[in-house]
Amino acid sequence: MRPSRRAHTVDPFLQSCSASTGLDDGDSPLQLSRRLVRNKRKDPDFLAPSRAPFDRRHSKRLKKEDGSALVVDSSNDSLIADGNAAATDQEMEDVRLDGEGIGDAQTPPTLGTGPGSDSELSVEEIVAALESQDPSRQQLAANAIRGMAKFERHRKDLAEAGVLYLLIKLLDAEKVDLLRHVVGALWNLGVNIYNNREIVTLGAVPALVKNLRHPEIRIQRVCAGAIRCLAWKHDINRTEIATAGGVAALVELSSSQNYDVQVQAVASLWNLGLNTAVSEIITNEGAVKVMVRMAASDSLELQRLSAGVLRCLAYMYEPNRVNIANEGGIKHLVRLLSSPNIKVQQQAAAALGNLTYRNGPNRITVVTDGGVERLIAILQSKSAEVQLMAATTLRNLALNEENRIALGRGGAIPALIPLLDALKTDVLVQVAAALWNLSLNDQNKGIFYRCGGVDRLYALYRSSNSDVVYYAKGALFALGVEIERPQQ
């Protein structure tokens, strides 16, 4: 039988929302939380006045800038023309790859459940158990939520029943197993984009950050995973996590002796680093040295994640292009280009692409550390994403005259030309741009003719993509072919 309701004290945050939500003074905290969630779902822009407004348009803008696999800096992506007719006085500025968050291309992984997750508790019974003072009942309910929330169809219903508020109230639980299931439930519920923001709004972050330093390793792991999820979509969440001190704790956990803790901590830093200000904080906490060291580890997953963090840091915070190079990061990333794992190759090539953005010394270092041969090798990858990152990095390297010679002698041109048949437009754009930069060296011109590159570039005139046509014309003009000079 469900216990009768006790006298309750309303949280200051929830009480501050009453004026904007039409709540009655007699509503319980649970009723307040439920009403908040219902209002949020009716109006995604709704948020309490005491919090920063959530602007859906701003969210879409962030997704466009931070969620794609490749972002071209549009202010620098065109030819720099000085009005001179000499082709050698023109060259194309390079592009940078954005820092890809764990959840940018797919939803974050959900957490598995333990014994008892198959219990047939109804949502009402779960709520009643969470409201009880019995830790065993609360643990059973939290584990049931954790299992149900692995599926999107349950995440909304559970949130509307008020479980987010009730779970967050239990983040100070002393019982380790109860706390582990509570955090695991919030992790899985947070995969829903609305729940993801609501969990932070209801005040979960300070407790999660505090528990990152919990003496129990299982708690460290699940809290780092929950923060990884919360930093997945909403930029404001990243700021709040950093403000609560989450970055310092996560950098510490990145050096944990426990592999699973390391994985979740590094993945969290990757997602958090998609915010420019937070990226600077991550740097100041000493993450660069830790990530470079981790890139040299034997774990493929840690290699992928650390390369992703370095990719992100080099994109979001310009001084890191120097910092990462000074820590020896370039040689480790070059080595990862030969990884048997496609995802490791992709992140390593992307990180090198960012490190060579507007940084001449790094372009030279990539070549002297053996990057040319490895980048050319992965152009043959079956993964379009790997081809994209490799072609973009080669494009950046070819902005240096000495590198053009090294790339020409290393076989970059005959390796790039077959990719002019690429089905993925993003790949084709970067390949054409790289060939344009390579065509600016006189020694490379003969290679283009011997490889049939001129005819292949002519064929690009039929492309429906204006950038592809533009870059093809630029390369042909540099090769001395009689065509109309490309205009900006």
Explain this structure to me?
The protein is elongated. It is an all-alpha fold and 488 residues long. It has helices spanning 12-16, 18-21, 29-42, 56-66, 123-131, 135-148, 152-160, 163-169, 176-189, 193-201, 205-211, 217-230, 235-243, 246-253, 259-272, 276-284, 287-295, 300-316, 320-326, 329-336, 342-355, 360-368, 371-378, 384-397, 401-410, 412-416, 425-438, 442-450, 453-459, 466-478. It is 62% helix and 0% strand.
Summarize the structure.
By secondary structure, the chain is an all-alpha fold. It is built from 30 helices and no strands.
Layout of helices and strands, plus pairs?
Elements: H1 12-16, H2 18-21, H3 29-42, H4 56-66, H5 123-131, H6 135-148, H7 152-160, H8 163-169, H9 176-189, H10 193-201, H11 205-211, H12 217-230, H13 235-243, H14 246-253, H15 259-272, H16 276-284, H17 287-295, H18 300-316, H19 320-326, H20 329-336, H21 342-355, H22 360-368, H23 371-378, H24 384-397, H25 401-410, H26 412-416, H27 425-438, H28 442-450, H29 453-459, H30 466-478
Helix pairs in contact: 3-8, 5-6, 6-9, 9-12, 11-12, 12-15, 14-15, 15-18, 17-18, 18-21, 20-21, 21-24, 23-24, 24-27, 27-30
